[in-house]
Structures are given as structure tokens and as C-alpha cells.
Amino acid sequence: MKKVDYIIVGDGYAALFFAHQLIKNNKSFYLFSEGKKSASFVSAGIINPAVLKRFTTFWLAQEQIDSLKKTLSEIEGYTHKNYLIEKPILRVFHDEKEKELWLKKSNEISFLSNDFIKINSIKNPFGCGKVNHSARLSVRDFFTDLMNYLEKNSHLIKEKFDYNLVNTENSTYKDIQFKNIIFAEGMAVKENPYFSEIPVEANKGHHLEVKLSEKIEDDFTIKKKHFIFPLNENTYYYGGTYDREQTHHKIDNSAVEKLINALAEFYPNDFEVTQVKFGFRPTVKDRRPIVGAHSEFKNFYVFNGLGARGILNGNYFAINLYNHLENGEEIHPEVDLKRFQ
Ligand SMILES: Cc1cc2nc3c(=O)[nH]c(=O)nc-3n(C[C@H](O)[C@H](O)[C@H](O)COP(=O)(O)OP(=O)(O)OC[C@H]3O[C@@H](n4cnc5c(N)ncnc54)[C@H](O)[C@@H]3O)c2cc1C
């Protein structure tokens, strides 16, 4: 029997940020990855402390940004790569009124800069507002490097975790005995017999990869209806959509059409769609993640409901969960699974 401190089920932001806490604190663990592309892997990687519809901010935004920066520099310590792209979000104003509202709100909300910007390569007659402290994560590198690190250090088990093989009495799975198990499966939690009832709902998001005939200057992240930013020399990310209704596992052509039309509205030159991708955000009605222990099996934990902010929520609440398990810290009541019991 192999004995470990933890088993983690999943390989998205929730799982990997929790795995980082275990690496950092020298805990023994195995992480199960079934090898499907997670919602995290298709995410844009945007780190945004502002709400760009209402020009406000949200719960713990500054703490989450500071904590994420610290975590990314810790990860850089063992992967030797920086994943933080410090290019700000520019929000394109629809009209003069929006610009005035932003200016007014910028007096109260430090994330909204009153330093307006005009971009030459897109239509922005009213200019753009800059979001202070916004950035992007280099998503592909982050996942590729962390998964390689886990594999090299014998933490990775590349198979689907089979719930039927758990022995709840001895805390074993096949020939592994664990102290705690963390379920971080995103929307696949619906297949998990211990936590299938948690109130997460799928919100499907599509994005495009496009080749632009003329580059957008300065590698900014630009937001009008959706976000656009460069993935490499020629290819840009454009997305994502939100859809609670169409939850089938196929590309939805109406979402693709919406994206193409929205891009054509503000990008004045030719572009070519080279790829369409989609994923399912695990969302919760009260917009808070779900973290907590099973009511009967006290060493079984769920970490889910990261919503549209997988990176900030994933990192911040992985730390809260780790400190709860190892140092007796309280799980933030706003995210505690107990709020539904
Ligand atoms: C189009 C789109 C764009 C987005 N953009 C952003 C963004 O810019 N910034 C941001 O912060 N967030 C963004 N998000 C949200 C973010 O992606 C989600 O919050 C996040 O992916 C949720 O992470 P997770 O780890 O909970 O789940 P997931 O990413 O879905 O990961 C769960 C993983 O667990 C694996 N798994 C499940 N069951 C098992 C099992 N039994 N055995 C083994 N493995 C299993 C699954 O295969 C999956 O890979 C975006 C989402 C979408 C769809």
C-alpha cells in the first residue's frame, strides 16, 4: 500500500493551485488527470479585478491579485518560467456617457484608471479605459509546465478516477491510502457520488482563434463585447461567450456567429477563424466557489464553483482550503459548502 497525504481528482485551476500548496509544503500526493481538455485549459487566462459591465470591483479583488502574484512567483521557483503577462485590459467605450460614468467611478474604484487610451488598429471613437492591476496568465505554458513537473516528480496518475474503487472506511483507492481527498473536477462533479448534489451549473463558453490581417498594437487585452489579445505572432484569442442553455458537448454555430459578428464590429480589417474551442464554467448562483467537507466522510473535500474567475478564485481558495486542512483556518463562510446545508 502506498501512503500519501492527499489525492487530488482533476487537473484544472482548482486542482493545480491546490497541488502547488502541497508541493510548496512538501506533502505527498497523487493527482488524477483523465487527459481531457479542461475548461481551465481553454480559458482566456485573463486576470481582471474589475466588473466591466458596471464599472465596479468584487469581493476580495485586491487580496486575490496580490495572492496570485505571490503564488506565480513561487511556481516560477521550480518551473523556472514566468506565466504572468503584465499587459492591461482596455475597455472600449460604447459612447460618451459610458466614458463619463467610468471617470466618475474611477474616483472610488482604484482599478479604473482615469488615464484614457486610444488605439489605432480598432474602432474606438470614444477611446478606452485602462484597468489597473489587470494582466493575463500564459495558460498553455502554465498547464504544460505544471503537468510535466507533476509527472517528473511522480505525482501524476494519468487515468480517470473511478469512484467505485474508493473504500471510505479505510480511506483507500486501489493500492493508495490517503489522509484527505480533494475533488476538483469542474462540471464533471455531477458524476461524483459524494458531491453530485452541489449546486453548480454549467455556463458554456466558446472562443475563437483568429488570424488578423493587421496586428493590434502593444499586445493589449482589449474588451468590447468579448476579449481579444495575441496568443502568438499571428494568432489572437477572441471570446468567450456565455450560455446556460446549450450544454451539449459540441460546437454551437450560433455562438461562433455571434463572435464573428462582434469582432467584425470593431476590428476594421480582414480576419480568418482558425479554431473554435469551448468549455464549461462551473458556476454557482451566489457567485461564490464551493469549498468544504462531506457531511459523513470528513476527509473528503470538494473544491469547485470557480465560475468565470477560475484563476483568482482557484488560487485564493486553494490556499484557504490548504490552511483549513493543515492549520485549522476557517473556510471562508461565503464559500463554505455548509451554506447549502
Ligand atoms: C471560454 C472560457 C473562457 C474563460 N476565461 C477565463 C479567464 O480569462 N479567466 C479566468 O479566471 N477564468 C476563465 N474561465 C473560467 C475558468 O476556466 C473556470 O473557472 C475554471 O476552468 C474552472 O476550473 P476547475 O478546475 O474547477 O474545472 P476544470 O477546468 O473543468 O477542470 C476539471 C478537470 O478535472 C478532470 N476530471 C474530472 N473528473 C475526473 C475524474 N474522475 N478523473 C480524472 N480527472 C477528472 C476534467 O477532465 C477536467 O480536466 C473561462 C472559461 C471558459 C469556458
For the structure shown, list the relevant keywords.
single chain; 341 residues; alpha+beta; eight-stranded mixed β-sheet; seven-stranded mixed β-sheet; 7 helices; 20 strands; 27% helix; globular; binds flavin-adenine dinucleotide
What does this structure look like?
Helix 1 crosses helix 7 (310-327) and helix 3 (61-79) packs across helix 7. The chain is 27% helix and 27% strand. It starts with a strand and ends in a 14-residue tail after the last helix. By secondary structure, the chain is an alpha+beta fold. The chain has helices spanning 13-24, 39-42, 61-79, 96-105, 139-152, 253-266, 310-327, and strands at 2-9, 29-32, 46-47, 50-51, 56-57, 84-85, 89-92, 128-131, 135-137, 156-157, 166-167, 172-173, 176-183, 201-212, 221-223, 227-230, 235-239, 271-283, 290-293, 300-304. It is built from 7 helices and 20 strands. The strands form 4 sheets. Strands 1, 2, 10, 11, 12, 13, 19 and 20 form an 8-stranded mixed sheet that branches. It is globular, with a radius of gyration of 21 Å. The chain binds flavin-adenine dinucleotide. Residues 9-15, 32-34, 36, 38-40, 42-46, 160-161, 184-186, 188, 205, 207, 239-240, 279, 281-282, 304, 306-312 line the site of flavin-adenine dinucleotide.
